[in-house]
Amino acid sequence: MAIAGETKLPTTAATSIRMGLKAQRAAQARMRLGTLNNLRWLAVVGQTVALLVVRLVLGFDFPLLLASTPIAVSALLNIGLAIVYPATKRLSAREATGFLAYDILQLAVLLYFTGGIENPFALLFLAPVVVSAAMLDVTSTLFLGGLSFAAITFVAQSDFPLPWEPDAPLQLPQLYQIGIWVSLILGIGFTSIYAWRIASETTRMSDALSATQMALAREHRLSALGALAAAAAHELGTPLGTIAVVAHELEREHSADATHADDFRLLRAEAERCRAILARLAQPEESVLGHADRLPLGALLDDIAGPHRGLDVTIAIDVQEGPPPKIWRVPEILHGFANLIENAADFATQEVRLKARWSENEITVEVLDDGPGFAAEILEQIGEPYVTSRPGGRTRDARQLDPAIGKQEGMGLGFFIAKTLLERTGGKIAARNRKSGGAIVTVSWPRGAIDGAAPPHQDFAML
Predict the structure, then answer these.
(1) Is residue 404 located within the same domain as residue 299?
(2) What HEC string does the chain produce?
(3) Is 177 inside a domain boundary?
(4) pTM
(5) Out of 12-26, 172-186, 205-219, 317-331, which region has the weakest mean confidence (pLDDT)?
């Protein structure tokens, strides 16, 4: 069985999902100019207030004009950018890195005139690097981290003392200043790595959920096509019936006319053929996935397993005796179980078995295979996106999958999609290894969740 499963979507569907995810990541990774400008305005206001308080309220002497110069430059830069570009402009990675690098240098110059590394506001060196770690690529973050390291080292050698009382100057010991320098460097490193990991996890989950929603949206589009086909069959049935009757009458009236009798016979036969095709389209059990219909649990599992039969693996269905519950054929259940069955068939040696059980309080379906089972090293990660045991599969975040995403056999999303979809219907899913060998995935619902009077709640906002 696939570990956290693979989704063998049709080629065009898989390609569209991959392209959609790549486009979303590209759009999300591009920082807005307005965001950086607003942060810089906050810095300008805060720095100005700090200088005025130190000079006018505390009465400490320092070169106010020189210290105000980098603040004025930042204000002019913001005004110029607001005039030239709209606030909604998306910055490339290089442009965003350049603006963040300027903020580091501006802070370094300001601290140089106000005590250097002894100034407690030296902690603000962390901000640009953390923003880069959360929004930009690793190269940009490393560059900004190196620039911050150089800037901190530079201001540590500042000749301008920290503004203080003239009759009691503050002189920090050299060892203490070295400690501040080390703490700033370590702080930048730790917070940047932490921000990068959080952003990676967020992007990873967002991409996986987007892929799930794309797959489900595709099933709903198919559902709409099925409803349209059923409506068309209903509307066209009457005129086709009329055509068949008229053709039959003409055939009978001109039976002696060999020239036209064959034409009327062909016309009637083709009309009957069209009616037969439309009758099949109108049958709910023959419609596409997602049509709102109910089937007995065993029949539903047989319907889902049908496309996966005919290979070198047997798919058996074991249903307990008694009247089975009737389950809604919603896309979440159909697509979720299709993934589980396909994954089990891929890894099974000879047989995949579906066991359906129910009671007054619960409905349970088990998907078992006689394959190698779940790998021990990723057993705890089952259900996480982008985790797979297929050849070429990797347990890395979505960003690292981009360079070779077209070469992978799958995206490691099958089990994640199945788990997400089935949980949307109120089910709980668990996976483990069988003592006799192979893997087992158990899905359970409380009674009424999927066999109630109404279909399970579908709460994808995008649908």
Answers:
(1) yes
(2) CCCCCCCCCCHHHHHHHHHHHHHHHHHHHCCEHHHHHHHHHHHHHHHHHHHHHHHHHCCCCCCHHHHHHHHHHHHHHHHHHHHHCCCCCECCHHHHHHHHHHHHHHHHHHHHCCCHHHCHHHHHHHHHHHHHHHHCCHHHHHHHHHHHHHHHHHHCCCCCCCCCCCCCCCCCCHHHHHHHHHHHHHHHHHHHHHHHHHHHHHHHHHHHHHHHHHHHHHHHHHHHHHHHHHHHHHHHHHHHHHHHHHHHHHHHHCCCCHHHHHHHHHHHHHHHHHHHHHHHHHCHHHCCCCCCCEEEHHHHHHHHHHHHCCCCCEEEEEECCCCCCEEECCHHHHHHHHHHHHHHHHHCCCEEEEEEEECCCEEEEEEEECCCCCCHHHHHHCCCCCCCCCCCCCCCCHHHHHHHCCCCCCCCCHHHHHHHHHHHCCCEEEEEECCCCCEEEEEEEECCCCCCCCCCCCCCCCC
(3) no
(4) 0.49
(5) 12-26
Tell me how many domains the chain contains.
3
- Predicted confidence (pLDDT) per residue in 62-93, tens digit: 888 998 999 999 999 999 999 998 877 888 88
> Is position 180 within any domain?
no
Q: Note whether 277 and 315 are same-domain residues.
A: no
